[in-house]
Predict the 3D structure of the following.
Amino acid sequence: GAGVSQSPSNKVTEKGKDVELRCDPISGHTALYWYRQSLGQGLEFLIYFQGNSAPDKSGLPSDRFSAERTGGSVSTLTIQRTQQEDSAVYLCASSPQIQKDNEQFFGPGTRLTVL
Amino acid sequence: DAKTTQPNSMESNEEEPVHLPCNHSTISGTDYIHWYRQLPSQGPEYVIHGLTSNVNNRMASLAIAEDRKSSTLILHRATLRDAAVYYCIPLTQGGSEKLVFGKGTKLTVNP
């Protein structure tokens, strides 16, 4: 079946612009996670959703970052007033539910470059 | 979150077994041990997980020490496609089951 998809695959933007990154999880998966991977920081957690609510936003680096999920499906990560340090690969993952023995299925990522 | 220690890099020859070690001495009794890998230019992918007993699946085997302070991921016959960064991740109890990635082990497979 279809895996996790993300769009766009690549995004180049200018410093100060806003960007939206989209994630389509596997159908029926209630848990959705956002991570990012940058050269200096490795893979780091940003936020997770259980259904449409986001109980853990602890990984969001600043208030310029926000995310929402609608209909228990698609999620959008928004970065306002982008900075060069926001350049990274943004990864989305989904899981059938929040459970310690569940695997997370990752999408291919969106590579964001802020000039 | 439980801290993990993995070798920065390891090398193997094709079709030979590979043993990737991980120390997680601060793991709690209810934490599952997950392994993920990341092939070049791809998102991470799940490999295997376990709690106390050794586990096998089509990709690999996971050997867990009796005291659970360490584990070893075993690839029985390495292929070139197994070249990746391998991450050992104790999944801590906390409600979100977010993955906390360390630096992992970069595995090189020689033809």
